[in-house]
Amino acid sequence: xxxxxxxxxxxxxxxxxxxxxxxxxxxxxxxxxxxxxxxxxxxxxxxxxxxxxxxxxxxxxxxxxxxxxxxxxxxxxxxxxxxxxxxxxxxxxxxxxxxxxxxxxxxxxxxxxxxxxxxxxxxxxxxxxxxxxxxxxxxxxxxxxxxxxxxxxxxxxxxxxxxxxxxxxxxxxxxxxxxxxxxxxxxxxxxxxxxxxxxxxxxxxxxxxxxxxxxxxxxxxxxxxxxxxxxxxxxxxxxxxxxxxxxxxxxxx
Length: 253
Prior knowledge:
By secondary structure, the protein is an alpha/beta fold. Helix 2 (40-52) links the parallel strand 1 (24-29) and strand 2. It has helices at residues 7-16, 40-52, 80-86, 99-105, 167-174, 205-213, and strands spanning 24-29, 57-61, 111-112, 120-124, 153-158, 179-186, 195-202, 216-222, 225-231, 244-247. 21% of the residues lie in helices and 23% in strands.
């Protein structure tokens, strides 16, 4: 049987990872791994909240593709009109996302940004500008991921590969790499169809690896695999640091 972890275990994990009061953390948690956590995803959320406190911030992706125009999916053309007429459109309190994102949204004082497809949820110290529906380039250090530019901010990936990091398309957009394309989504829940087009960026595996090479990283072993910790610090020289792997979860009793 997999080793079960507790909220206190996760507070110890975050302490060992160097997460501290006042930091900003973009948290990506695969809902599958929460099955081995006593208290589920909420235990991880509360452990991180108590670690960074309200002086810091937590950012969680709350993406949902149900608002995408059918022209952006693999739906047959003859179904487009019917789908557009019956799609609900985006509403921050009702549009879904993955189970971990939904659990995060249930917490008091968590707010959600207004992008119809690639929204993020925030807790703690955040700026209202991050919530605005600046639809173009939803993965951007200018808006949604603004706090992720600096060393005191990290991206934690629990149960995800580091190539799934939301930092990578943001870095590609900043470095003018990747393929820029147009998406369209229903932005309002009204009877008439109100859609909006916006620019997004697609990156292939080679580009992802180049973007990862410009990130600092630490990898932590636990019973479900690795926790990846990535950060971008434009003020420091990455060549002065090295990646590291630390194992500590396996020793928890």
